[in-house]
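hey can u run this one w/ adenosine-5'-triphosphate bound, need the structure tokens asap thx
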Amino acid sequence: MEHIKIHNVSKLFGDTKAIDDINITINQGEFFTLLGPSGCGKTTLLRTLAGFYQQEEGDIFFGDTFINEVPAHKRNIGMVFQNYAIFPHMTVFENIAYGLKARKVKKDEIVVRVNEALEMVELSHLKDRQPSQLSGGQQQRVSLARAIVIHPGLLLMDEPLSNLDAKLRVKMREDIRSLQKRLNITTIYVTHDQEEALAVSDRIAVLNNGKIQQIGRPHEIYLSPVNKFVSNFIGSTNFLEGKVEAGKEGENAMVTVEGVKLATKFGRPFQGKVLYSIRPEQVKIRDDKETSPTLLEGEIVDATFLGESVVYKIIFNSGYTISVHEHSIRFGMLREEGNKVKVDLNPNEAVIFDESGEEVIN
Ligand code: ATP
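ok here u go:
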């Protein structure tokens, strides 16, 4: 069921179009993430939805309600910010009760609802503490409880985990996701951290320069990026220049990369220069003795051991260096710097863009 509809929305600051003609439809109960680099417009879009900013163009609907003219405090939204924004002079309990008092909820009901929210964020035992006596993670749980206690129709979260250390970030994102599922609350989440976005979201919108680049489920965005920007921003990839002599739609055609001809199917007829994008874990390292015209010769120039995987830098005769991840390492299986290897560029998994990187051709 459709819940949030953002239709042709643009927001200007002076001459800067912070968000540019945004169209998104979000379903009831969905965990939807706005992902993109600093300055791409994520916060501006979130604050426009919250009613803190008024867009110059476009319409916003919450369900059937046209929301453009509805002031922020009447939009029934719970918000969680990066810097927690909790009141330092109030206890945990009072912080969480604040929104209910402001809405003139009866005292008895406030106690019940605050206790319920405290339980949900696992903070019941700390309800009488002052915020200064809490860790960063606990403070963020207070702001989460404060956001959900009002039973909002929509939860907006702006980089809520950015101030926490790496391990706690992972724990908190799991907790947020499971609470969100339990409450079945439509959530719009802002982050610049692509791994976090992949881990928690039902769907992701990737933004750049105020514009949506792609909307999709995490694996769709990762495996089928629609342009060079998305392919580079989500995960990491190797870009190699190549060319196609004559690729017919739906037929196996040859793309020449680093002097090697690789067969792949094309989604449309194509001829000319291309950008061949292959992720480090999709490249396969073969034994130096293997022979095949589609394998490239190279030498390992760097090996970085990361625990669960090793990242190799392999240089080709042309001087191009490719990055390759290899998993399932056993003792004695580590490849050494200086080793000669052969590399399979795995055309079945590569995404091939036109020269500009704006369109996928395979
Ligand atoms: P970050 O991850 O760094 O918070 P963001 O993706 O949330 O970035 P926004 O804060 O939405 O980006 O900013 C989008 C663009 O709008 C940027 O170019 C920014 O400089 C500009 N901008 C944002 N807020 C204002 C403002 N109040 N006045 C003028 N320009 C602004």
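Residues 166-183 form the longest helix (18 residues). anyway lmk if its weird
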